[in-house]
Amino acid sequence: MTDAAAEVHQHLGCELLKQVVDLTVETGDVRVLAGQVAELVRRTTGVDVVFVFVLDDDNRQLTLTGATHPFEAAVGTVHLPLGEGVSGWVASHRTPVVLPEGKQDDVRWKCFPQLRGEEFASMASVPLDTSSGEVVGVLNVHTARRREWDSGDVALLRSTGRLVAGAVHTARLLRHLELQQREQQALASRLVDVEEQERARLGRELHDGVAQRIAALAFHLSAAQEALPDDVAQAGEWLRRAGELVDLTAAETRSAVRALRPPLLDDLGLAASLHALCRDLPEVQLDVTLEALNLTAVQETAFYRIAQEALHNVVKHAGARRVRLKLWRDTDRAVLSIRDDGSGLVPAVAGVTHGLASMRDRACLIGAQLDITGRPGQGTTVRVTLPL
Fold first, then answer.
1. How far is CA 195 from CA 198, 294, 360, in A?
2. Is 36 exposed, middle or buried (0-12, 13-18, 19+ CB in 10 A)?
3. What is the pTM of this model?
4. Which has the closest alpha carbon to 184: 367, 382, 377?
5. Of the spans 213-227, 261-275, 338-352, which averages the highest pLDDT?
6. Which CATH class is domain 3-181?
7. What angle do CA 184, 185, 190 make, to 5 degrees?
8. Which end of the chain is more exposed for a tag (fewer CB within 10 A), N or C?
9. Residue 375 phi, psi dihedral angles, 5° rounding
10. Cβ atoms of 301 and 269 closer than 8 Å
11. Cα angle 155, 159, 161; round to 5
């Protein structure tokens, strides 16, 4: 190769690498990237066809992920176990293979009818390996006529392959991370569902068992007190006190049942449950706007519990006189807002309490965003936004 030709070759190689870098930055889809890189390599190097094979997540099989014309339709249909064929050998040994001619005589070569390999005399195959040495695929170039592949050609293909490998590796990591996040969210949702089912079961048992027996006990104590002679005053006093304790226990049991699983949530839905929750607020002026939304049981429960905790904070800590609670659909989002005119909670100053942590956890479990804003003396706003 003359000096002038070498200079042209070097210039084309630099341009190729620059354009590949641009593609890896701009393109996140591995299949799209593989196709664009294949065409770019074909135009720059003057070969007839380029194939990009990508290794699956189990590192067992190569799949044709990018191809130049006229083989675009074969993308996704050609699979090669690791170690088989020239490409499988290159991937497993992490070593380039150059076959200027007679590739059909190479024991590693394997024919794929879709790719018409017998029509191409020469090929060069290089691994797509990352800087850490992990192989994620193979880059193959073919020519119909015999071609000598010098060290510069192989070096350029390897540099191109490493750039592509980095992008493929990053996309794989992101895909794994996204899958793990979905799995964690699904698991969390199932755990919340199981928790609420258990709460409902305990609530039914308390209501159907303990609460009813306490009511019967109260009846019998009252009857016994009325039947006692007038001169057994002390026994009557004891029975009276027992009756008071029974009444208190019954009230606490009913409160526990409501806390475990509000019956209205099952019977009438979220809007009615929130309305009932607001009615129990003492000495607070309420402005309630509720829109019926089609949410899952887990989502309804999370919204209800967050509202319950927010209203509890209003009563116990805010010293508010007015509260505005609103539930509505905003295009493709469900939004719950609780705003008060109390002392103003500033989470960054107040720290993360158990109640705040509980609200954040419940929002996270259903994929919602929780925002808590407040200013001293100007109230607090709790806002939950759930994509639908």
1. 5, 21, 17
2. buried
3. 0.49
4. 367
5. 261-275
6. alpha beta
7. 95
8. N
9. -135, 140
10. no
11. 115
